[in-house]
Amino acid sequence: MRDGLARKAVKAVGISLLLLLSITSGCLEVPLNSCEDDCFPLSSDSLNAILAFSDSFDVLDLAESHSQLKVETTSITEIGDQRAEISWSVGKDDSAGLSSVALRYSIGTASVDTEVVEGKTTTNVRVGNVWFEGRDALPEYEDPFFEIAKLASENPDGLWPPFAFDTTEISNLDWTITGDVLSQEQVATGSNSTHTIILVLSGAPPMITGIEMYGGDISQFSLSVTLGADAAITLKGELRRQPIQFIPEANSWQADDIRTWSGWVPEGISEVHPSELSLNARIGDEDMISLASMIFEDRQTNMTLTDGTWWNFSWVDYRNDELVSSGDYWEVRTNSTAEVTIAVYDLWADSWTDDYL
């Protein structure tokens, strides 16, 4: 399961992605028609005939047809009076059983740059220019393009890659088309009343592998498609280990001199073996010390400290998968009045899970 970093970064944006241009409202698809005998070089009329098909472009068709695929987009616009730039890179490599989702955005002074590569028990996470090693005890390789399409249909107002372009809106332009016979690549340039549009087409019959759009202000949109070995994904080794993103909720209540904390393992974390995590009553801000703790593998622990106070820790494996995973329940109870923070220590990563990277 996805380690959750990319999804948390997406949620942290706090805005819905503004599609820059009114013409980007369809689905990214692959040209289906053969363009008869006018494939190279295309004439303006032949290109318009291709673009006139409402289903002539589909990223899910690309994902079905190609085992190695990467689609990248960059959107630049203004939100209020601030420049906003959002870039996505989504890739899959069926032969390696790996997927990659990267998000980079900057809005005013806020910025995020992150990537997650997953599909195996070892995962890679990038924060800025630094890579970390993660892990997933129950890896489930999924085609990220179909996964994103499913999530977007369930939450259409969320922030998702803008893999969308309605070609029928630009199927009546006067195109200037140049090409290179050896590479079978063609570049078409046209404009309407609001934008300049550049299309890159590759192969025969031609398939659109690049889109660029420029408005009269700072607004820009670009999309590129990479296929085959150039879209291959590999895992990096010998990296610093990253703790899972499991930060217990800071809630507690008191009854009959007994204080209780409880919560659920959050959605989106990778499943990990219970021997690799400990649940702690932690004291201190900088020099953090565990006053009492339990390794999740023990499931329930009751201990009495030298001052006579007792601590009870418990973990309920609700999914019954023998792993610490989303939806599991944890609880800490004590008669101590010590000021503590309930925290998780990742023994595998040798780090508190709420340490900032």
Short description:
By secondary structure, the chain is mostly beta strands. Helix content is 10%, strand content 40%. It folds into 2 domains: 5-231, Clam (outer membrane lipoprotein receptor (LolB), chain A); 244-352.
Low-confidence residue ranges: 1-32
Overall tally of domains: 2
| Number of helical stretches of at least 4 residues | 4
Task: Give the tally of β-strands.
Answer: 21
How would you describe what is shown here?
The protein is 10% helix and 40% strand. The N terminus is likely disordered. A hairpin with a 3-residue loop joins β4 and β5. A 12-stranded mixed beta sheet has the order 7-8-9-10-11-1-2-3-4-5-6-12, covered by helices on one side. It starts with a helix and ends in a 5-residue tail after the last strand. It folds into 2 domains: 227 residues, outer membrane lipoprotein receptor (LolB), chain A (Clam), CATH 2.50.20; 109 residues. It is mainly β.
Task: Write out key terms for the chains shown.
2 domains; 12-stranded mixed beta sheet; 5-stranded antiparallel beta sheet; outer membrane lipoprotein receptor (LolB), chain A; 4 helices; disordered N terminus; single chain; 40% strand; mainly beta; 357 residues
